[in-house]
Design goal:
132 residues, 0% strand, mainly alpha, Serine Threonine Protein Phosphatase 5, Tetratricopeptide repeat
Length: 132
């Protein structure tokens, strides 16, 4: 027990530097997340509104909503596939190429390809390769 008495207790508000640095990192990360949260919440709402418009066959509104999502989260696979679906279902056939652009460089899983295959014009199916 004499060892415990010999140790000097930490004075209030005096912590090791690594604890202060770690705490500062957590605080900065939290503030940064709070700053970005409204954009991602709005993107989530736009994605939901896009799905609703798509299922109501309002493809132009769906495209606008999906593009708003892609402005915030350009790498969103769900938004890219959804906007391509809307372009393919749109009455304007010249928009089909925009759908292909959004599918470019995406790795489509089996369920993704099933979604796309339902709406993609047959002439564009040859642009896709099956990878096993």
């Amino acid at each position: 027990m004499p060892e415990l008495e010999a140790r000097k207790p930490l004075s209030p508000f005096s912590y090791p530097k690594w604890v202060l640095l770690f705490s500062a990192g957590v605080l900065i990360s939290t503030i940064y997340s709070l700053f970005l949260a409204p954009m991602y919440i709005q993107a989530s709402k736009d994605l939901k509104a896009g799905r609703h418009a798509f299922y109501n066959e309002n493809y132009n509104e769906a495209i606008d909503n999906y593009l708003a999502v892609l402005d915030v989260v350009p790498s969103s696979k769900e938004a890219r596939i959804s906007v391509a679906e809307a372009y393919f279902k749109n009455e304007n056939l010249s928009d089909d190429e925009y759908g292909l652009i959004y599918l470019e460089d995406l790795r489509l899983e089996k369920n993704d390809w099933t979604r796309i295959k339902e709406v993609i014009p047959a002439k564009y199916e040859e642009y896709f390769d099956v990878i096993k």
